[in-house]
Design a protein that fits this description.
Bound molecules: pyridoxal-5'-phosphate
Order of helices and strands: EHHEHEHEHEHEHEEHEEHEHHHEH
CATH superfamily of the largest domain: Type I PLP-dependent aspartate aminotransferase-like (Major domain)
Distance between the termini: 39 Å
Number of strands: 12
Helix content: 40-55%
CATH architecture of the largest domain: 3-Layer(aba) Sandwich
Strand content: 5-15%
CATH topology of the largest domain: Aspartate Aminotransferase, domain 2
Shape: globular
CATH class of the largest domain: Alpha Beta
Structural class: alpha/beta
Amino acid sequence: MKKRIYLDYSATTPVLPEVASLMEKIAVDHFGNPSSHHQEGREAKAHREKAREIIAASIGALPEEIFFTSGGTESNFLGITGLSKALASKGRHLITSSIEHSSVLGAFKALEDQGFLVTYLPVTSLGMVEPESLAQAIRDDTILVSIMLANNEIGTIQPIQELARIATERHLVFHTDAIQAYPHLPLDVNVLQVDALSLSAHKVYGPKGVGAIYLRRGIPFSPMSKGGEQERKIRPGTENVAGIAGFGKAVEILVKEREREATRTRVLRDQLKNGLFENITQTILNGDPDKRLPNNVNISFREADGESILIHLDLEGIACSMGSACSAGALEPSHVLLALGRTPREAKSAIRFTLGKYTKEEEINHVVKVLPPFIRQLRSTSSMSRIA
Ligand SMILES: *Cc1c(COP(=O)(O)O)cnc(C)c1O
């Protein structure tokens, strides 16, 4: 079989061999329950706490401010819901953006059903949330703002420091979904001035089904589930110790390699972007050309159907995505691209390529070679069918 070219690192990443071997060792040998008072329990607890320290240090937080979850979706839901409910006596107005991940939008939808009022901030045609629009949306009864650090579909990096400053000056709690930013950008919760921040392991070469939420010390919080004392009652239940330790190992490696990798992928990404733009007409870059993740390129190929492109590339051995992995199953145009002002047709002609650790120059050259003739063919058959 021909070797496949994986360009969907924003959907998920492979687990690093070092991470997998640590996880296996813990699952098989250090299998104790970290709440148990014996040696097996203490070993498991030590692995869990080591991961907590590594992850805390990677974002400038204290270990006690990190809570492990079942992944990014739960971190977002737990963070947004737990903070909103704890603050509900002060007001019931919440602010987010119109381009958030479905896990954030889902949490806000559920809060709307419970009597909270949510403002969805618009974005510019490049996908940026304007600080003035946040300032104008704040009301006397606003309690919380949640805006993502970097977008998973178009890679746009928001001015989070500025947005968080506006919220903090008005004594609001600020949460950010940093899941896509974390693999590429150095983050510090004290520089960003955020109160809560979500992370996911499988976007940084760790296992799926593990995540974390940073909650600033002393912040009011209403846990979503009740039960044991684990994670200081914020997230009860016996921890996925192997997964958590794997997350820690992945972050240890991430912190060492992130800057160098970001530089390397940016060069390859630009090569891909320029190669496609030079060889294909009627293309639109979705998202900000500069303030974007170094591994992301998202292009609308006008008058070509994204789904057909995706299927063809898959048959050619190339994995990429239409918008996000989560909405790719549905045939609805991406809510992110519509929010930028793309027409539904333009939105449905969009393809996202996201590069990562194992991406090589030959792979990029191959995509630049096979995609342009296919787009031309697709456009000529679709215009023929219109004439017929
Ligand atoms: C992947 C992703 C999530 C969801 O994380 P899971 O661990 O897959 O549940 C949330 N937000 C963003 C921006 C993501 O890219």
